[in-house]
């Protein structure tokens, strides 16, 4: 499975999922965990309505808003040093 959607979040027992592909090995594991936790929280309130791709889209939107605010950007730059 290849694509730019949330298919990279799909894991398999035998290591042949997109998440296990050579190009994706460098992706941070804590990012996968964060998306999975968000998905579980949403599923608890709205079962079967929101996909992992929806979670990623909302997270991307929120990050753009966060870094677009001068005070947030200053904090991010301070923590990078």
UniProtKB/TrEMBL annotation:
Q: Pfam families under this entry? A: peroxidase (PF00141)
Has the keyword Heme been applied to this entry? yes
Q: Which cofactor does it need?
A: heme b; Ca(2+)
Catalyses: 2 a phenolic donor + H2O2 = 2 a phenolic radical donor + 2 H2O
InterPro entries named in the record: Haem_peroxidase (IPR002016), Haem_peroxidase_sf (IPR010255), Peroxidase_pln (IPR000823)
Q: What range(s) does the Plant heme peroxidase family profile domain occupy? A: 1-81
Keyword field: Heme, Iron, Metal-binding, Oxidoreductase, Peroxidase
EC code(s) of this entry: 1.11.1.7
Q: Which domain of life is it from?
A: Eukaryota
The family classification in the record reads: Belongs to the peroxidase family.
Q: What is this protein called?
A: peroxidase
